[in-house]
Design brief:
CATH class: Mainly Alpha
Radius of gyration: 22 Å
Number of strands: 0
CATH architecture: Up-down Bundle
Structural class: mainly alpha
Number of helices: 7
Number of domains: 1
Shape: elongated
Distance between the termini: 71 Å
Order of helices and strands: HHHHHHH
Length: 198
Amino acid sequence: MKRLLLILATAFALTGCGYNDFQRLDEQTKSAWAEVLNQYQRRADLIPNIVATVKGEAAFEQETLTRVVEARAKATSMQVTPETLNDPEAFNRFQQAQGELSSALSRLMVTVERYPTLQANQGFRDLRVQLEGTENRITVARNQYIQAVQQYNVLARSFPSNLTAMVFSYEPKPSFTVQNEAQISTPPTVDFGTGTKN
């Protein structure tokens, strides 16, 4: 009987101090993170088609294409595991690699503006639309992840659930940050042209 009472008391204490909330929010952050990775992979899968289409323009700057290819290779070669969420250094390296890829793609799209034949290429226009949609999905997925992490971190830092966090080693999770604080006030410089979009 004492053992049953001890088990019930322990169960009540765990639910009352946020243990179940930690489990729920941890799963929520993992799910949101998986969606971020899914959208980054979608973007990475588009890049070879974009590069192949742009290569068809004989005069196109090779250096610009090389930067995109190298940034994609770096971003996709990183081993990302669920533990990445609990390792601020690994998370930062991943974030930097994705930022470099975003920057390289931005430069590519700005450079494309100087090539009317690329602008007129229906295949390239379709790829631009897909890339724009993917960038929007990345933004949505990142925002959902940021919100999930915020809820988890508030629980990890609030009393009395912070005691549960200490006992079970639930560390706050890293969130996305802006690499350059000056960029906060301006939208990303991905220029998809002024042509007609379907």
